[in-house]
Amino acid sequence: MAEGQVTIENHTHRLPQPFFVLATQNPLDLVGTFPLPDSQLDRFLLSITLGFPEPKAERELLTTQDRAGMLQELDTRLSPQDMMALQADCDGVHVSADLLDYIQALLAETRNEQWFESGLSPRAGLALLRVSRACAFLDGRNFVTPEDVKQVFPALARHRLNTTSGFNQTPDEQIADLLNQLPIP
User: Fold this and answer.
1) Is residue 35 part of a domain?
2) Is residue 34 situated within a structural domain?
3) pTM for this structure?
4) pLDDT digits (tens, 9 = 90+) for 73-85
5) Contact present, 90 and 131 (Cβ < 8 Å)
6) Of 138, 170, 185, 175, whose CA–CA distance to 153 is shortest?
7) Which of 39, 71, 104, 135 is most deeply packed, by most CB within 10 A?
8) Which residues are within 8 A (CB) of 121 and not within 5 positions of it... i.e. 6 or more apart?
9) Of 113, 108, 148, 143, which Cα lies nearest the Cα of 125?
């Protein structure tokens, strides 16, 4: 998908721009569910945990019309060209040299085997930079702050990192500890 194309039975199809892919992950204990290899997980930009709805929202979900039908009623808010223009605007958000040092320090710290079995890839570093820029842009700023990086880092890293054996913490807990211990510029 990162190449903007898919191949089905030896036929390559270019994907329209912009495009994005959403995927769900079932619990690993379900029959027929297997974890993806690290190289495939690294291609997913973010891992967002939704949890369960609040009781009131769950009741509404149970008592209203089928949600799939509601998709047909949605109005278009942005054209593909508008979306691509916003993406270009995000790419123009400034990142200082000090902040690049911080991002590199985060990447390096995940690779030293103290925290995780294997660290974040250069692809993850590029993704962190891009998502941090988008976070700043959505906040109305034309520059990235360390807080932007810290805000997006868990969702970017949780599906890419496995804790080192001997730790009784989840990747999210390890990521939080890492963020708290690494000095920010």
Assistant:
1) no
2) no
3) 0.82
4) 888 889 999 999 9
5) no
6) 175
7) 135
8) 42, 160
9) 108
| Owning domain of residue 78 | 5-29+40-181
Q: Are residues 41 and 160 in contact, defined by beta-carbon separation less than 8 angstroms? A: yes
**CA 185/CA 179 separation, integer angstroms:** 13
**DSSP secondary structure code for residue 29 in this structure:** T
Domain count, the chain: 1
Distance, in Å, from the CA atom of 158 to the CA atom of 114, rounded to the nearest integer, reads 16
Q: What is the CATH number of the domain that holds 173?
A: 1.10.8.80
CA dist 35 → 20, 163, 177 (Å): 21, 16, 25
Q: Which tens digits make up the pLDDT trace of 152-173?
A: 999 999 888 877 766 677 788 8
Whose CA is closest to 124, among 103, 93, 101? 103
